[in-house]
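Dear Dr. H.,

I hope your travels went smoothly. While you were away I took the liberty of generating a structure for the chain from your last submission, since the lab meeting agenda had it listed for discussion. I wanted you to have the full record in hand beforehand rather than looking at slides cold. The sequence, exactly as received, is reproduced here:
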Amino acid sequence: MNKLNWGIVSTGRIAEQFASDMAFVSNGKMLAVAARKLEDAEEFASRFEIERAYASYQAMFDDPDIDVVYIGTPHTLHFDQARDAILAGKHVLCEKPVTISSAQCQELSKLAKSQGVFLMEAMWTYFLPAIQQAKRWVDAGRIGNLKHVKADFGYPMPYSPETRVYNKALAGGCLLDMGIYPIAIAGYFLNNVNADWYVSAEFAPNGVENDVIMLADFGGKKATLATSFQCKLNNYAYIIGDKGYIAIHDFWRAKDCSLYILEEEVEHFEDSRDSIGLNYEAQAVAEDIFAGKLESDVVTHGKSLWLQTQMENVKSLFDRN
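The corresponding predicted structure, in token form, is as follows:
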């Protein structure tokens, strides 16, 4: 089987997870890693048996043997790094949020298409077998007419304005870091229609949001969503119809889902993966690139723009509390 050569931007936690899951990808291999310090790149390369280490992102982008780049840096760096990789002729898989504004998202999409390269936001949740099974149940009418989506994602994050998650200069806050997942799962099942939002938010001492409750009307279908740095939330997604519902535990990294009719569980699905789950998106990216596609059918540029727009709409309501 043909394999794409991957280059990884960053040596942080999510990059480590991605590199670990590449062991489960049959159509790609890690060839290079780039970091701000050569010693960091070399240490990362040694741990994951990566052939090449770079102290310059641009140097890796200029490597003619690299086919596709994975970007796992803080949010505010995504646009510039994805742009530079695209201009170097590389396909790009960029961590969510792919940018920090709808304008940046549109610009990246336009640039990737003009350069003839593949670009996808790394919304790995959409590719997980349990999520796709839940969608099949919905599409088959197993829960009847879809009425509600309930989803939340929160973990206590001690306040420190210098850490990435609270740093205003790095687009810190729970909405872009964790809240993107409940919004994304609502969009996945409610077909990415524009929503009318009611928002209640609380803020850390530096003004970064650390708890957000969102109620939304998706053209008659409702979503109840939440995200928090203050506390651990239930971290379930519930897809609710007039005949039944689907429960998905830890939905953003889902390994299983259950179908209920009233209180009775009538079907259960569980995958048997040994990976974290990032391999599914990496496998799909390579399949799309080999097929000559410039964007994914699962995470289209339009869906990424929808996510950006919804998060901007939510943020615009923060100051109305």
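Two observations you may find useful: The longest helix spans residues 174-190. The chain has a mean pLDDT of 96.

With kind regards,
E. W.
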